[in-house]
Design brief:
The chain contains 7 helices and 10 strands. Strand 5 (118-128) and strand 6 (131-141) form a beta hairpin. It has helices at 3-15, 28-35, 39-51, 80-86, 105-111, 159-167, 185-190, and strands at 55-58, 62-65, 72-73, 91-102, 118-128, 131-141, 170-182, 198-210, 213-225, 231-232.
């Protein structure tokens, strides 16, 4: 039996409801014994099932069947507390780094400031039921209206909530660019997964409004794991 044949056999087990959604799936050792097959073939088949959205794997805990009955709106995915709550899980986030840095050319272009201007850089890990689900790097311009911003409680509140409630800057819209990427070892370690793990990268700019002026208030890159997530959106059609 080759890798694809084994993957087809395992998919049959899942589609026949032999294993409950979000329940534990067969371990590598159990599959090897059940099908009398080598470890490399088993790992290849499990990798195929992960890519096809049938299973997800948690380091140190095992392999689980993916729950396809729940999804979150693609429009809210980077507002992670909302999207995580939509799937019935408990959201949490950790600020693992916070510092003032000079804006690079790319950061300055997205925030419409000068290269070298001070920006507040935040590194944030967001979790669902204590498991890391995305890693976000945010840059916020250190504008005169944002006096005292580095001292705010980002571990308790989101960036947009702080800007809204403490600086009266209302978020107006966010422009997202989305692409599939493979994780570097550094980001993979943060997300407790493996190097070259496939994720969705959201590269985005949020615009805000203050005193009738509209300007960029945050540029961020969000690496979103999709092994336990699926997304939905509603498309409207013009009735002729």
């Amino acid at each position: 039996m080759n890798q694809q044949e084994l993957a087809n056999q395992l998919i049959q087990l899942i589609e026949q409801d032999e294993y409950k959604e979000n329940g534990k799936f067969l371990s590598e050792r159990e599959i090897m014994k059940r099908f009398d097959i080598g470890r490399s073939t088993v790992r290849g088949a499990l990798s195929t099932l992960t890519c096809l959205g049938y299973i997800y794997r948690i380091h140190g805990k095992g392999t689980f069947v993916k729950d396809t009955s729940k999804s979150c709106s693609l429009y809210s995915v980077t507002r992670s507390s909302q999207s995580i709550t939509e799937t019935g899980m408990m959201p949490a986030h950790d600020v693992i780094a916070k510092r003032i840095v000079p804006a690079s050319k790319k950061v300055s272009k997205n925030l419409q400031i000068c290269p070298g201007d001070d920006v507040l850089m935040l590194n944030i890990v967001r979790r669902a039921n204590a498991e890391p689900i995305n890693y976000t790097v945010s840059w916020v311009p250190m504008l005169p209206v944002f006096k005292g911003l580095p001292g705010k409680k980002f571990a308790e509140f989101s960036i947009t909530d702080i800007l809204k409630n403490q600086y009266h800057v209302l978020p107006k819209h966010t422009i997202h660019n989305i692409q599939p990427v493979l994780l570097s070892k550094e980001v993979a370690d943060i997300l407790e997964t493996t190097e070259n793990f496939p994720v969705l990268l959201f590269e985005s700019v949020t615009w805000g409004i203050l005193n009738d002026m509209v300007f960029p208030i945050e540029y961020f890159k969000c690496y979103y794991k999709t092994d336990k997530s699926q997304f939905s959106y509603m498309q409207y059609h013009t009735v002729v």
